[in-house]
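User: Fold this one for me? It's Chain length determinant protein.
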Amino acid sequence: MTQNNNSPVSRSNDPEHIDLLALMLQLWRGKWTIAIFVFVFIAMAIGYLSIAKEKWTSRAIIAQPDAAQIATYSNALNILYGSAAPSMLDIQTRAIGRFNSSFSALSQALDNQDVPEKLTIEPAVKGETLPLTVSYISTSAEAAQKQLAQYIQQVDEQTAKELALDLKDNIKEQIKSLNDSLVSQEKVAQEQKELRIKQIAEALKNAEAAKITSPRIQQTQDVTQETMFLLGSDGLKSMIDNEASRPLVFSAAYYQTRQKLLDIQNLNVNPDTIHVYRYVMKPNLPVHRDSPKKPIILTLAVLLGLMMGSVVVLARNTLRNYKPKA
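Assistant: Here's what I get for Chain length determinant protein.
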């Protein structure tokens, strides 16, 4: 077997036989060429790292609000609907559900901007609705943490205002309904009063027709509509005057309705006292950036430099030692 300094492959009768030792020698002799390629690719990687836009992700974990965070809203619903009001657990679940919907809407709006922003919300545990993980990607760790906290607060305030607005609408409807109920009860009481006076007036006519002026019955509790004329015309006239001057008589339900109306009219729920989420983990300050990954990029640069340099060296030697067959 013969070999010169420029021969990439040892002479052999087998065309598919490759002399690995000769191949390694070629690469060794072209080490400076390979080193230049490695240097160039590393320089390109460093240049890319210097101009590439960094991405840092801040994350937070949230869950449904505590009872104290939603207490004013819950108390208002209890006053409005009494025993028909939703339970505290239902209110907490609805609150975090509305937060999730509003946050998702904000995420889509930010993603559709001319300069998109990456804001996401998803279950922290696969298959579970709560808790939720929210994240935001920015060009620096501090900016990602700060902006995520601001977006969470923004959605919380917006959702609280929506709940308070819904509550005000419900209060208006309840006040109208209770006032209508009071008017109806007052009308019924007035009709009952007028009916009572008519009954006494009818008994007075009978008493005058029978010329009964003084009571003819001793036990007044036994008096019926048919026997009322026995009380005498004088007594019946007094009863008419008394009934006409008496205030309307209402049932206990009327006063309960008025009490409920006053309680509802005094409701004043401040959105600042409503919070629809609870932090399990506040927005963190990321330690490692998402991209660009410096170690990975530099490693790839070295590998690509080695590969390209080796290809150039081997191709150059192959062309240099190529001899066409006679």
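One thing worth pointing out: Strands lie at 56-63, 118-123, 132-138, 278-281.
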